[in-house]
Specification:
The chain is an all-alpha fold and 486 residues long. It is built from 17 helices and no strands.
């Protein structure tokens, strides 16, 4: 199938391989930024309801539970990232069959692993919270909230995967619009189920988790309905449903690339869990403050995440189309936009943090003061992280995974966590907050060196079915082609 034939079949595929790079990047990133804004507004409004209706104990409980949920997503997320790289490179070549095979394999892997993660997470939720050192007054509500959230993992993961697949195919607007129904339901149900209304009894923290669970199911159902109603290129029909049975060759690609990317997420989330264990030692006020400032950080990170998604999709399509001359220009455009947008968000949140933090912490003066201090010391680290995200998104778009994993391990473990151990006797709890810019600087330096060194450009992801079949068939032969390691 030729590129032109592929694009005529998949009319929903947006070509990111032509036109002005900066303008195309920005137009693609804006809906992704809108998605991040909507998700963050949803989470922040829910945090406001919890903080106002259940107090700082409820907010601290959700902070502990949400970090564990992020860890569970990280266990699986790498496979979705690997799948969408295949989808993006296939879209760049106009290979519709390759796109849909990637979708089918990704859907099955996400669903099965979501079920496994739900069962394991439910069973070991108490041990995970104890491992974090969750304060005794926070533990009961954290356990309730965490277990309810686990029930929504399968549908939540599939919703995330479909959104990633659409962006890989060049469509960032549809995933943003499809967030709206679930968001409105979540926001509306939270106060009703927490406090009770009419015949509905007050359910407390369980009600907040239940509202999110219901909203996740609605989002998933709406997304699937729209994909088929609009006949989007990532849909499967008729004989294409056979792609849901994972092909050995595609699984080999996704696992080979997905495990290192998943490990990157695990290192990140594992570091966050260790960080929370340090925070938990400082008492409930600091835990609540940390949970509140994390709400502000979600907004600071939004531009970097949106630009990172846009850069990844653009790079994957251009690599698939063989347009390497555009890659450095994509990187530069992403860095410039990130510096401007992320820097602006840091300044704005620091200027108005007192009023914003009051939304989450009500009149808890001590917790607000702690949160302001945390933001002043750590928030600027996200400027460094935004640049790192652009460069690492491009290298991953070509299947480079092992070196970025090594960089993250070094930056987060001896870098961020090591700095806490070295400085805590000297500056106390401030060592926790200073570790953010220290880890961010180390990660940026190493990632920039790897990008400029250029070895990642020699990797070739086996993104076509024919090449993958050659790999599987020659696996056991001495002269067989080896799958690149990244």
């Amino acid at each position: 199938m030729t590129a032109m034939q592929g694009r005529s079949v998949a009319g929903g595929v947006r070509d990111l391989t032509t036109g002005p790079i900066a303008k195309t990047l920005l137009l693609f990133a804006l809906p992704a930024l809108g998605s991040n804004v909507l998700q963050s507004i949803n989470g922040s409004i829910n945090a406001v309801w919890i903080g106002q209706l259940l107090g700082e104990t409820g907010l601290a409980a959700t902070a502990n539970a949400n970090l564990i949920m992020f860890m569970m997503f990280a266990l699986i997320f790498g496979f979705g990232m690997a799948s969408t790289i295949v989808i993006g490179q296939s879209a760049g070549r106009g290979d519709v069959t390759g796109m849909r095979q990637g979708v089918g394999t990704g859907v099955t892997l996400f669903f099965v692993m979501g079920l496994i993660a739900t069962a394991v997470g439910w069973a070991f939720a108490p041990e995970l919270l104890r491992l974090l050192g969750t304060p005794a007054d926070v533990y009961p509500e954290a356990l309730i909230y965490l277990r309810v959230m686990y029930l929504g993992l399968p549908s939540g993961l599939l919703t995330v995967f479909f959104a990633m697949a659409m962006r890989g195919a060049g469509d960032s607007l549809t995933p943003m619009l499809l967030l709206l129904p679930g968001m409105f339901i979540d926001i509306a149900l939270n106060p009703i189920l927490i406090r009770g209304f009419g015949p509905i009894p007050p359910l407390g923290i369980f009600g907040s988790g239940l509202a999110t669970l219901i909203a996740n199911f609605v989002s998933f159902a709406v997304m699937v309905a729209v994909i088929y109603a609009r006949d989007l290129p990532i849909r499967l029909r008729g004989a294409e449903f056979r792609y849901l049975r994972p092909k050995r060759e595609l699984v080999a690609i996704i696992v080979n690339k997905g495990i290192p990317m998943g490990l990157q997420m695990i290192v990140m989330s594992g570091s966050a869990l260790v960080m929370l264990s340090f925070v938990n030692r400082e008492g409930t006020d600091t835990v609540a403050a940390y949970g509140a400032v994390n709400q502000l950080w979600t907004y600071i990170q939004m531009p970097a995440m949106a630009i990172g998604m846009a850069v990844s999709a653009m790079a994957a399509q251009n690599i698939g189309a063989g347009k390497w001359e555009r890659i450095d220009k994509i990187a530069m455009a992403g860095i410039v936009v990130n510096l401007g947008l992320t820097g602006s968000m840091v300044v704005l949140t620091l200027l108005f943090d007192s009023g914003l933090l009051t939304l989450f912490l009500s009149d808890h003066v001590r917790a607000i003061a702690i949160a302001e201090h945390i933001g002043l010391l750590a928030s600027w680290a996200f400027i460094l992280m935004g640049v790192t995200m652009v460069l690492s998104s491009i290298t991953r778009a070509n299947g480079a995974t092992m070196v970025p994993l090594a960089i993250m391990v070094l930056a987060y473990i001896p870098g961020r966590l090591g700095s806490i151990y070295l400085m805590e006797d000297w500056i106390g709890a401030d060592a926790i907050w200073w570790s953010f810019p220290i880890g961010g600087a180390l990660s940026l330096i190493m990632t920039a060196a790897y990008y400029l060194q250029g070895g990642w450009r020699n990797i070739r992801l086996l993104a076509t079915l024919e090449e993958a079949e050659e790999f599987v068939q020659s696996e056991a032969e001495p002269t067989g082609r080896m799958l690149p390691n990244g």
